[in-house]
Structure formats: C-alpha cells, structure tokens
Design brief:
two-stranded antiparallel sheet, 3 helices
Amino acid sequence: MNYEMKFYRDGEGDPRCESGAPGVLIGAFLTEDVQDSLNTCREILGKIERIANGEIGSWRRVGNAHVLALSADEAVIESVAAPDERASRLSLEDFRHILESWLHFLEENWRRPRA
C-alpha cells in the first residue's frame, strides 16, 4: 500500500509526521511514541529483522500513546488514549519501510537537545 507521509520539524524543533488516511495513526505513532529517538527506531527495526528471520514470532511495545504489535504477517498500531479508535494494520514490510524513512529523516535533520 502507498502511504504518503510528510516529515518535518515544527517551530519547537520537534519531529512531526503528517499523513492522510490510512496512515494517520502511523504518523501519530512516529510523532508521539518514536519521537526523536534513533535508538527506538533501531530497536524496532531490529525486532522486525528478527521476526523476518524467524528468530522470534512476535513482539509488542507499549509506548506513550500507542501499542505496537509486530508479527510475521503485519504491524498493528492501536491508540492507548482512544481504545475504540480503529487500529492501523499494515504489512511488516510496509512498516519497515516507513520506519526506515523516519530514521533517515531523523539522521538527516538532527537537532541539538534543548538547553
């Protein structure tokens, strides 16, 4: 599936992701849970790699605002604040591509921490 995502830094320097349907929840996950963390991106990408290689069957992470569940078939993102909101489901490969793009954006647009 084609997810059009716009990555940018807001006036405060925080990373943001805007996306229309069906990627709204994915963008919120990147903005609110992954944030500026290169380590979080790399950790999740490492888990995706381990799942793809058959080393682990699944993995789950509860973040600031979302729950991420990974399996060999898909990535599922659910809102913690709005549990009745429809979950976002996408292929593991699509999620890997989006996360790699976010990581690249962060690496290319790194900012110094606020004083």
